[in-house]
Amino acid sequence: MAKAIVMQRTGGPEVMEYVDVEVGAPGPGQARVRHEAIGVNFIDVYFRSGLYPQPLPNGLGMEGAGVVEAVGPDVTHVRVGDRVVYAGHPNGAYCEVRNMPAAILVRLPDAISFETGAAMMLQGLTVQYLFNRTVKLQKGDTILFHAAAGGVGLIACQWARALGVHMIGTVGSDAKAGLARAHGCAEVINYKTEDVAARVLELTEGKKVSVVYDSIGKDTFGASLDCLRPLGTMVSFGSASGQVPPFNLNELASRGSLFITRPTLFAYAASRPELEAMSGELFAMVTSGAVKVDVRQRYNLAEAAEMHRALEARETVGSSVLLP
């Protein structure tokens, strides 16, 4: 038997139950992984609350790091004893041990710890595709990135600095502003005390930005569009404040023929070659020191509900992990 977080219904953090589960032998195409650390991301809240539907009962968590204990038939790219990391479907990472699709497992370099591996995959791969594929950023570009002191945001600050990109970040406190600056954010706006669109106009001397990266959703969408220069791109990749409400496409025309996209990591990493290439680039950024993954919150697996309460209250900074 192994411990796991299981949901019988959707709702608040209280729906997560810490229970014993049976873990058998891995089936065809599967591997059994014993977790050393488990990543926590806001998408987990979406599944727990029901914003993103899934069959019930079910587990939570899309990211983890650990050691392969067994492999099923037809699995050749990982072996027993391998250190591995992953970010992907199906949910169920909030556990000590699990059988899972081996196709999403990637070998973790010895130079990267399990905690770092668990905390970096979903967030780091997100930054990789946002900056290199959704929009191919170039040295000298100016961008706006919301939630710059969050887990994704702090990786984005460092990645932007490494690329020579001028990143303007938004945060909700002076303490978070200092953290974003320390990680390489060129300019920081406190959205609780400053008008974001007006401040972007000032910081860019009226030119605005070429790309806005927005994981907040409903609360920031209108201001994000206001920050874009003509032919700029709005990248909406999350809904922390709620879903973006319906809007008239003419809004894009009236602001200067703007582009808009709603990407997901899983579309960009859909094939094994894409996943390995993206992971390799992330590992290189981390092992070189260009990107340091800032794990600020550590909770025991049994405390997953407390972790979610802190996450939803925006009390967290950097990355968070659960320890089995």
Description:
There is one protein chain. The model has no long low-confidence stretch (mean pLDDT 95). The protein contains 10 helices and 16 strands. Helix 2 (114-134) crosses helix 9 (272-287). Strand 15, helix 10 (304-312) and strand 16 (319-323) form a beta-alpha-beta unit. The chain folds into 2 domains: 2-120 and 294-323, Medium-chain alcohol dehydrogenases, catalytic domain (Quinone Oxidoreductase, Chain A, domain 1, Alpha-Beta Complex); 139-262, NAD(P)-binding Rossmann-like Domain (Rossmann fold, 3-Layer(aba) Sandwich). The strands form 3 sheets. Strands 3, 5, 6, 7, 8, 15 and 16 form a 7-stranded mixed beta sheet that branches. It has 324 residues and is of the alpha/beta class. Helices cover 31% and strands 27% of the residues. The longest helix has 21 residues, at 114-134. The protein has helices at 42-49, 114-134, 151-163, 174-182, 196-203, 221-226, 250-254, 265-268, 272-287, 304-312, and strands at 2-7, 16-21, 30-40, 58-59, 63-71, 83-87, 97-101, 106-107, 142-145, 166-171, 187-190, 209-214, 228-236, 259-261, 295-300, 319-323.
Topology:
Blueprint: E1 2-7, E2 16-21, E3 30-40, H1 42-49, E4 58-59, E5 63-71, E6 83-87, E7 97-101, E8 106-107, H2 114-134, E9 142-145, H3 151-163, E10 166-171, H4 174-182, E11 187-190, H5 196-203, E12 209-214, H6 221-226, E13 228-236, H7 250-254, E14 259-261, H8 265-268, H9 272-287, E15 295-300, H10 304-312, E16 319-323
Parallel strand pairs: 9-10, 9-12, 10-11, 12-13, 13-14, 15-16
Antiparallel strand pairs: 1-2, 1-4, 3-5, 3-7, 3-16, 5-6, 6-8
Helix pairs in contact: 2-3, 2-9
